[in-house]
Specification:
Elements lengths: L1 H7 L26 H6 L7 E3 L8 H5 L3 H13 L3 E2 L7 E4 L1 H7 L11 H14 L4 H9 L7 H15 L7 H15 L7
Antiparallel strand pairs: 1-3, 2-3
Length: 192
């Protein structure tokens, strides 16, 4: 079948040097429009966000979402380079210069309304992929014009094993990651 041959060899085209597989953290919630701005707005005057911002009792009320969504928001902020641990004091994250340029009140797109901001987030997920292995693999190495989650599971697992042969992988985790990725790009269909 042409489809499987276009997916099965994807691991052969990759360079795994310095890349680790990451398939969780989003709690199965795709990235939502204002989540990155919500994180940005939690920074103090030194551009730091204490890690407990995402775990304390007030996090649900501060972000206006459920507990699992708060964890997802943190994941997406890290994956899209809004926050990083690099250069931050212990127990904190720091807002990146890229995030400041875009999401500051006087930034390029403080409310994440411009399609360019969505493309920028996509570039971090698919181009960098340090916390979004599925996104990086799917958009850089899968050439089939159509596929299903099931078509991608085994080749993605093979790719992940090529990155870290000693790591145990759960096919259920990989399947959920693929589904989350697909839902992030697929138009929502409202049932009657």
């Amino acid at each position: 079948m042409i489809l499987s041959s276009r997916i099965d060899r994807m691991g052969e085209k990759t360079s795994s040097e310095g890349v680790t597989a990451h398939f969780s953290g989003h709690e199965t919630f795709p990235l939502r429009q204002m989540w990155l701005k919500k994180v940005y707005d939690r920074a103090d005057s030194f551009d730091y966000i204490h890690k407990t911002t995402f775990t304390n009792e007030d996090a649900i009320a501060e972000f206006g979402v459920g507990k699992n969504m708060v964890a997802s928001i943190r994941h997406w902020a890290l994956a899209c380079n809004v926050i990083t641990e690099e250069g931050a004091p212990a127990g904190s994250y720091v807002i990146t210069d890229h995030a400041k340029a875009v999401l500051a009140d006087q930034g390029f797109d403080p409310y994440a309304e411009n399609p360019t901001t969505a493309w920028y987030a996509h570039w971090w997920l698919a181009g960098r992929g340090h916390r979004a292995t599925t996104w990086r693999w799917l958009f850089n190495f899968v050439t089939s014009p159509t596929f299903s989650r099931e078509d991608l599971e085994a080749p993605l697992a093979e790719y992940a094993r090529s990155l870290d042969p000693n790591r145990k992988l759960s096919m259920a985790t990989i399947s959920r990651d693929i589904e989350t990725c697909i839902r992030g790009y697929r138009a929502t269909i409202n049932a009657p």
